[in-house]
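Lab meeting, item 3. Inverse folding demo.
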């Protein structure tokens, strides 16, 4: 999102930035969500937070959001595409001076509590929260079977 916001800031034409992205057939990051068809309520909270904290990029981000929603409604009147949490989370993290390269890790950390809550709910109810999400990684294994286990702290390796 930040490169898109920076481009709108540089050019002063948020609408043109959005149209250019869509004309190239690229996905407009920060908009649309698989679950929320209306505005993501988390986006609203983060937008308000950015405004209250006078985040330096709040005004340009708000203008970009307005332009994006307008263009999306014009081009896809059959689909309700709204702002998602990642759009405003990027502005918050930028305000906090989190390096751009660390933002994906920060998004992941923010989701960890929700993922843990899903696991606890699944264990309690005995059914998957989102059946379409399936783990496809390696099968479970003992820590000592993981390559490099013996080369880490010897006390930890001995306990495994």
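The presenter then showed the designed sequence:
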């Amino acid at each position: 999102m930040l490169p898109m916001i920076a481009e709108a800031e540089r050019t002063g034409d948020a609408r043109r930035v959005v149209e250019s992205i869509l004309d190239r057939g690229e996905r407009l990051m920060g908009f649309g969500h698989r679950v929320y068809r209306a505005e993501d309520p988390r986006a609203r909270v983060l937008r308000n937070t950015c405004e209250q904290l006078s985040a330096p990029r709040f005004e340009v981000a708000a203008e970009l959001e307005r332009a994006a929603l307008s263009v999306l409604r014009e081009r896809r009147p059959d689909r309700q595409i709204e702002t998602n949490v990642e759009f405003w989370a990027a502005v918050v993290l930028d305000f906090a001076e989190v390096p751009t390269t660390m933002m994906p890790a920060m998004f992941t950390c923010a989701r960890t509590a929700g993922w843990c809550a899903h696991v606890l709910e699944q264990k309690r109810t005995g059914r998957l929260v989102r059946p379409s999400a399936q783990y496809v990684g390696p099968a479970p294994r003992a820590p000592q079977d993981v390559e490099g286990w013996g080369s880490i702290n010897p006390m930890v390796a001995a306990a495994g």
